Amino acid sequence: MDLTPLKAALADVVAIPVTPFAGDGTIDTQAHRVLLRRMLDGGVRILTPNGNTGEFYALAPEERRAVTELTIEEAGGRATILVGVGHDVPTAVAAAEHARDAGAEMVMVHQPVHPYVSQDGWIDYHRAIAEAVPGLGVVPYIRNPHLDGACLSVLADSCPNVIGVKYAVPDAARFAAFARDAGLDRFVWVAGLAELYAPAYFSAGATGFTSGLVNIAPGVSLAMLEALRAGDHPAAMKVWEQIRRFEELRADRQSANNVTVVKEALASLGLCGRDVRPPSRVLPESQRAEVADQVAGWSI
């Protein structure tokens, strides 16, 4: 199979949609569709249902399947779909097979949350998923700073559908070394810590970045991508300066409010409710105004 189109699709702003909730705690499908349509109309061309900004770990299995199906249906071929999968191996494999059957082109494998992850075990985990869906592109999500780049190379030797990496270790030097140890030109490297880290990671070899901010202001994220693709670092940093405080609020206290801040911004625009599921929590009233003020300064 020719994986070139999937690699090209991955080298972009990889949007991680939120999962809106209704007042009764169920998924607000109407708001979800509106947000997806808004991103698509704004120029987003790759969507990741069931990412962390979509509260992957707070969704029940049937909800994750519903989110996958709704996203594929709403995209209607206008965007490449990269579905987040994870948990134990059988659950991850079943989710990947569901994504394939629903019409997705790729899966992103969440960082294993098991407390004891060996390097060889990491390879085995991802191999089991990749071998189950040989027709899909597979993108490991790496948050483990102790993982060696050679592990990724070994994995891809047996699973050629492993085509890219969402790298989310907050260390640009570590990323540069990992990418070169794995094979810089062999994979598509996606800066997995969004706009705040994208300029530094692009300088080390990334060609795409993830974004939760894109739920709010697609044009802002795409402006950064355009500048980075053009090698216009000053222009990229102008966008960085614009969104810096917003992303710092998301990253504070080990990203405790990562999703909360995005949903608060959307709530301030009347686009969806601010509710999140435990262990996340809505922002206290005293902090909401700062988020609204940040968003008010953007071109939306």
TrEMBL record:
It comes from the Bacteria. GO terms for molecular function: 4-hydroxy-tetrahydrodipicolinate synthase activity; 5-dehydro-4-deoxyglucarate dehydratase activity; N-acetylneuraminate lyase activity. Its EC number is 4.1.3.3, 4.2.1.41, 4.3.3.7. InterPro entries: DapA-like. Signal peptide: none annotated. Keywords: Lyase. Belongs to the DapA family. This is Dihydrodipicolinate synthase family protein. It comes from Streptomyces poriferorum. The lineage of its organism: Bacteria, Bacillati, Actinomycetota, Actinomycetes, Kitasatosporales.
